[in-house]
Structures are given as C-alpha cells and as structure tokens.
Amino acid sequence: MAVRHRLIKTSPETVWAVLADGTRYGEWVVGTVDSRPVRGQWPQVDAALKYQVRLGPARLTNQTIVRNREEGSLLELEAHAGFLGTARIAIELRPWGEHCLVIVDEHPLQGAGGMLHNMAVETFIQLRHRAMLARLAKVCEADAEGERRRRAARRAAGVPRTGGGHA
Question: What's the whole-model pTM score?
Fold first, then answer.
C-alpha cells in the first residue's frame, strides 16, 4: 500500500478548507484538470467530483466519490479510473504543533489496477503522492499567507476585527 506523509506549515483548518473545495481538486491532485462537483455537497458522504486526467495527449474523464469523512481530520475517497478500476484514497489531517501532518494512504479496490499492482506501480504511486503533497502544501501555505496579509492590511487600515468587538 502506498502511504506517504508531509508536514504542511499551516493549520489543519486551512488544509481542510482546500480539501473541502471540490473546485480546487485540480490545483493539488497531479494530472487532474477541470474538476467540478456533479453530485451532492462536496465533501459530504456520497458527493462526487468529475474531472479529467491527462495522460500525455489523451484525456480521461474520471470520478471520485466521498465514502467517509470526519470534519477537519479525515477524507476517504473512492476514485474511479475507467478501465483501471477503483482505488481507495484516505487523507488524514493531524495537528502537529502549529502545523498539519497530512497522511495519504492509497490502494486499489477493484479492476485492473488491483490485478496489476506490483512494486513498479507502487513506486509510481509514491512519486505521484510526493508531487501531490508538495502541490497541496504550496496551495495551503499560499492560502494561509494570503489570509495573514489580508489581516495585516485590515489592522493597518484600522478595520476592526469581527466577532466580539467593544461597545
């Protein structure tokens, strides 16, 4: 099974916000473009995203379904990859000091992907996860930095903070 982790230098809440936005799937999932929710409210259980995957000049339309979730800490997905079959992908978020430890665990469920699963495929999945986690870190850390800058600009402009001001 392909298990990989990465420490992302932002809060688990920031990482969850990216995972919970189905329209941003293509920003961090390697090879994916044009993601869009097609069923339910992402990332609720049974919600689905449809997207395209580039394999050289070819584009395949695939779908991913939420099978399990724990708000802010776990997202378990079933990825449907056409003739390759399906895979389970679990993304776990753990607070790690002020940062977030992200653990991705993927393994085939059905179809050719499971029958062809070997060390070469495992190596490919590990490389893809390394790239995917790097992209996720870049997106999340950029979002966190943007939010820090917006807060600093509001403070500099004298805009009061929301939620519990003085009378």
Answer: 0.84
- Distance between CA 59 and CA 55 in Å, rounded? 6
The answer to whether the CB of 16 falls within 8 A of the CB of 72 is yes
Q: Which residue ranges in the chain fall short of pLDDT 70?
A: 1, 112-118, 159, 161-167
Cα–Cα distance measured from residue 167 to residue 36, given in angstroms and rounded to the nearest whole number: 44
Query: 3-class DSSP state for residue 83?
Result: helix
On the question of a cis peptide bond just before residue 57, with omega within 30 degrees of 0, the verdict is no
- pLDDT single digits (tens) 12-24: 999 999 999 998 9
Which residues 6+ apart lie within 8 Å of 115 measured at CB?
none
In angstroms, how far is CA 163 from the centroid of its own chain?
A: 30
State the angle between helix axes of 12-19 and 119-156 in degrees (0 to 180), rounded to the nearest 10. 110
Which of 121, 110, 83 lies closest to 2, judged by CA? Answer: 121
Residue 78 · residue 87 · CB < 8 Å: yes
Q: How far is CA 40 from CA 25, 48, 50, 71, in A?
A: 16, 7, 12, 16
Residues 15 and 93 sit within 8 Å (Cβ to Cβ): yes
For the chain, how are helix, strand and coil distributed in percent, rounded to 5?
A: 35, 40, 25
